[in-house]
Amino acid sequence: MKKNIIAMLLAGGVGSRLNILARKRAKPAIPFGGIYRIIDFTLSNIANSGIEVVGVLTQYKPQSLMEHLEDGRPWDLYGRTRNVEVLPPKTGEEISDWYRGTSDAVYQNFGFIEDYLPEQVLIVSGDHIYNMNYQQLREFHQAHRADATVCLVRVPEDETRHFGIAITAPDGRIADWEEKPSQPKSNLASMGVYLFNREILAWALALAAKKGGYDFAKDVIPIILKQKRIFGYEFNGYWRDVGTLDAYWNANMDLIRTGSGLDIENWHVKTNMADRGEIGDRPSTYFSRVARVRNSLISRGCIIEGSVENSILSPGVRVGKKTLIRDSIIFHDTSISDQVRLNRVIIDKDAVIAEGAQIGVGESLPNETYPGHLSTGLTIIGKTVRIPPRCRIGTNTIIKPNTDLARKKLRDIPPGTTV
Amino acid sequence: MNRTLALVLAAGQVDELLTLTERRPKSAVPVFGIYRAIDFVLSNLMHSGITNVGVLSQFRPYSLLRHIGSGEHWDFIGRSRTLNVLPPYRGQKESDWYKGTADAIYQNISYIESFNPDNVLICSADHIYHMDYRPLIKSHMENKAEVTACFTKVISKSRRFGYGVIEKNHKVTEYIEKPEKPPTNLASMTVYLFKTSTLIDLLKTNAKENSHEFGRDLLPVLVKNKTLYGYKFRDPWYYARTVKSYYNAHMALLGRKFDLGSWQVRTNLIERNEKGDRVPTRITGDVSNSVVSEGCVINGQVMNSVLSPGVIVEKGAIVQDSIIFHDSFIQSDAFIKQAICDKDVFIGENVEIGRVGSNVISKEYGELLEDGFTLIGKNIKIPARTRIGANSVIFSTARSIADEIPPGSTLK
Q: How many beta-carbon pairs under 8 angstroms link A with B?
């Protein structure tokens, strides 16, 4: 079946800096904004841009991701001419069977691409939060008769060291490219979104592989830069890499910050409502007489009897009486009892917080075990953790999944601890 | 194992819900945010392990058909699980339209026979309750009953029900339909379990008569023959036949806040031709003692109300004691009390609904609208600063809306 354009979605990210949130799920499958998962944004971009075929390259703990993708139906990518294909690593005939990098994943699945004989191949990543119409990118690409186009976004100077940085000529052509520079010559960062003419991509991937290069930013882009027409397309909308706990929390909060530029309503981000193996026909959320909710997103199936401020609640969360939840993100079916205080906490699914617990208290000391992951005053509670009554948990603390603090007889956890 | 086929009567042509049933059957009226009335009985059947269901429908059925779909939402799809919608068909002889509840079943005798069940369970699509039918079937078998009717205790003793007297041996010794003075407080839920052969014989006999209602025509015959058994259902049961009962059912469910989740009511989330992945509820205003569905944006105040998906309440607006259907838009500083707004209603700035006139009875509908409720039909736009008195109804066909609508008005 011939298609003008198809997308290859890189969903293999380990997401280790997201710590316990990514422990049993691939980064793109981490819940976001109450009912979504991170990958929904990219998939919705693809669907809303009228692209009909997507290959999803998975590798790391893909099960919850595959369940979520199902047959592509939730994004209207299912039917005679529309397709979402999950492409896990194959046991190779020769040496390796594991994807050795982003471009290797695409290279190993070039047969899938050739089935559709597209003019262009769009490479996107499943772990970014943004709303983008890729057709505008395609128009730019064609108007400039580009062989490849890299999407760029302006980032603050101090963040350039995390990205591939492009130096563009006045006509939009990329003149130079630096991977994660400490002394950047520009603040135009690569979004990890590339549009290639198919033949150019085939040629560049083969060449990179021959030289032992398996990464788009490090290996493929420099090859094209030397010999072909490569352009930079500056994207001015909202875009965030949510690779760290701080970035993840901030992007969630952007959903309830006015003027943040992140707009899920109008862009219509779609998701699979069959969460937790069930179609999400939970009852609508109940707010009691004493419920008090300020500037928050509340999903269905919640029961709210306390106060919720600047927070995001996934389906099925219970908030008890005289409880105050502030600046927090609570995943599915977590139960929070009476007189609990939560301050800047991320709680994974099915946790139970007993009455009188206080989480996110005390001074902000970096986490002892993961100072690089957690130092700004967030507290992370893993899946199915049980917090006993009146337990106090300091900031920058990580409670690993399945921990039962009552059984461990822990009632006072100082800031920066990992349990 | 005992095999039971369920037949759901969703054919009601009653217009007592006024504009709410203007373009949809009663069984498809939205209930409690995300449900439609028929979801309750279909979910009960699903959870009771009944796997074959026929839905008898004839009145404005499109929204019902679309909602029921293939039955997959209630798990009625599979090798041995079926859900069939049974509309009236043009018979070889004269009539083609169902002439009553018993006639509707009579016209589908061949459907019943095709399943060859031991029992046929007949239930209505417009009752709101959570019932496991298995104890009923068990009691029916233990009594070696040919027919068992379900009864529930009612407080109001409304003239709308049929009332039964049940003896200790479970036999029904008296049954009166719509009496002035009910002999008991046990009202028929219009849920009947029949031995299949008995049902077919009764229907064939009844077909020769002029009236074809289960309650009015069949039950009295069974009582006379001493073959009717009664089954008392003791959990909450609500019906949504009138505006008042529909409203009261919502307020009762609101009072039972934690129950609906445990009822495990299933619905078709593809509402309005879209999968229900609306944005979570966005709240900056005040919400108390209310149920608010996803996709709502609440910047004003919502009290004692039930909101379906996509309702927007702007800053300064007050919604109290009301039921608001999908995607209605309430602009800033509007005041709405005891209103039921159908889908896509637009309420302009500073509009007042139901503030005055709750003691004025509807001129056209009398006791159907005497409790202070105001009904606004689908797609109606109420211009800014309009004032609408209580007990009024605006049908979706209304053309122009005056600045001041006195209490008890009807606009068509």
A: 105
- A221 in reach of chain B (CB within 8 A): no
> Residue B331: which CATH number?
2.160.10.10
pLDDT tier at B45, thresholds 50, 70, 90: very high
Domain presence at residue A95: yes
Model confidence at A312: pLDDT above 90:
yes
Question: CB–CB of B276 and A295 under 8 A?
Answer: no
Residue B288 lies in a domain: yes
Say whether B291 and A289 touch across the interface (CB within 8 A): no
What is the tens place of the pLDDT at every residue in A139-198? 999 999 999 999 999 998 888 888 899 999 999 999 999 988 888 889 999 999 999 999
A181 vs A292, which has greater pLDDT? A292
* Predicted pLDDT of residue A280: 60
| Global pTM exceeds 0.95 | no
Separation between Cα atoms, residue A221 and residue A191, nearest integer Å: 13
Are B8 and B120 part of one and the same domain?
A: yes
ipTM over 0.90: no
Token code pair at residue A307: 């106060």
Which B residues in the span 294-323 are in contact with A, Cβ-Cβ below 8 Å?
Answer: 294, 306-309
Name chain B contacts of A285, Cβ cutoff 8 Å: 281, 291-293
User: Which residue on chain A is closest to B266 by alpha carbon?
Assistant: A281
Q: What is the CATH number of the domain that holds B171?
A: 3.90.550.10
Are A45 and A36 in contact by the 8 Å Cβ rule? The answer is no
Please report the pLDDT score of residue B307 as a whole number. Answer: 97
Same domain as A144, residue A18:
yes
Q: What is the mean pLDDT of residues B366-388?
A: 95
> Do residues B84 and B161 share a domain?
yes
With contacts defined as CB-CB under 8 Å, which chain B residues touch A48? Answer: none
Query: Long-range contact list for A253-260, CB < 8 A, 24+ apart?
Result: A253/A310, A253/A312, A253/A327, A254/A129, A255/A33, A255/A297, A255/A312, A256/A295, A256/A296, A256/A297, A256/A310, A256/A312, A256/B282
**What's the one-letter identity of residue B113?**
E
A40 and A185 share one domain:
yes
Contact A287 B284 (CB under 8 A): no
Q: Print the domain residue range for B319.
A: 278-411
Number of domains comprising chain B: 2
**Res. B285 pLDDT band, cuts 50 70 90:** very high
Exposed, middle or buried: residue A91 (CB in 10 Å: 0-12, 13-18, 19+)?
A: exposed
User: Do B318 and B250 lie in a common domain?
Assistant: no
- The three-class DSSP label of residue B123 is strand
User: What range defines the domain where residue A89 resides?
Assistant: 5-267
